[in-house]
Design goal:
This protein has helices spanning 6-16, 26-30, 34-82, 86-90, 94-129, and strands at residues 133-134, 138-139, 141-146, 149-154, 157-161, 166-170, 176-181, 188-197, 200-204, 215-219, 224-228, 232-241. By secondary structure, the chain is an alpha+beta fold. The protein has a domain at 135-241. Strands 3, 4, 5, 6, 11 and 12 form a six-stranded antiparallel β-sheet that branches. Helix 1 (6-16) crosses helix 3 and helix 3 packs across helix 5 (94-129). The chain is elongated.
Length: 242
């Protein structure tokens, strides 16, 4: 910070008053000899420089803390996704930890983008819905599936992993084939959702035909945690009448 010459500051204070250094009154200031005024001005500049330096240091520390918190959060997310303990994480090389944090950040960004897209899609449907109603098939039901994990087949192996949120609509007597895309890779899993009646929807591993065996029933208007054997685990399914 560039400092003004002391004499220039003295002239400015004399001309512009009534703000005098260190909270002094005009009478106190004008009663002082010029040397004392210079000393007080230098003290005030020193205090201002110190206050600025302390403020900058506090901002630096706050920024470092935010970066550390974000790093810890990404590490926790990566450990949970990979199913490893803090000790196992500590055994990884710094480069590998950095790579996994970057991967976790990318996954979370994709999930957030999908959430925003789903919200935009929902709002767009609501805007243009205009009380859409088919008197033969009944009202439309909008559904969201998010959270939890799905089981994905990878060659001869299978693995449970989070999936991107999905939004779709149902009408009575029509089953929806829902594709769950794995959040971090291109694998997909498919389930079926259908309205059993005006108050109940069923989530199934296979297309429901006739009896709804092997399906999970939920109430329309009430979010539920759904688990399907070898397919879906603790996913939140929320179906609401439009």
């Amino acid at each position: 910070m560039r400092k003004l010459p002391i004499m220039a500051v003295l002239l400015m204070i004399t001309a512009c008053g009534p703000n005098y250094p260190l909270g002094m009154s005009e009478a106190e200031w004008t009663s002082l000899p010029i040397e004392k005024r210079q000393a007080l001005l230098e003290e005030q500049q020193r205090q201002e420089a110190l206050a600025l330096a302390q403020q900058q240091e506090a901002l630096r520390v706050q920024h470092e803390q935010q970066l550390q918190n974000e790093r810890f959060r990404l590490e926790a997310g990566a450990r949970e996704r990979l199913g490893i303990t803090p000790y196992e994480w500590s055994r990884l090389t710094p480069d590998k930890q950095f790579e996994l944090r970057q991967e976790q950040e990318s996954i979370e960004r994709q999930q957030q983008d999908a959430q925003r897209a789903m919200q935009a899609d929902r709002e767009r449907h609501e805007q243009h819905h205009d009380e859409r109603h088919d008197w033969h098939y009944g009202p439309v039901v909008a559904c969201d599936i998010s959270g939890g994990s799905a089981k994905y087949q990878q060659g001869f192996h299978s693995q449970w992993a989070p999936f991107l949120p999905v939004h779709f609509e149902l009408t009575p007597d029509t089953a929806a084939k829902v594709t769950l895309q794995r959040a971090d890779k291109g694998y997909t899993q498919e389930i079926w959702v259908r309205l059993r009646d005006e108050r109940t929807a069923v989530v199934c591993r296979q297309e429901p035909v006739g009896a709804f065996s092997g399906c999970y029933a939920i109430s329309v208007g009430q979010p539920a945690s759904v688990t399907l054997d070898a397919t879906l685990a603790a996913a939140t399914v929320d179906c609401r009448r439009r």
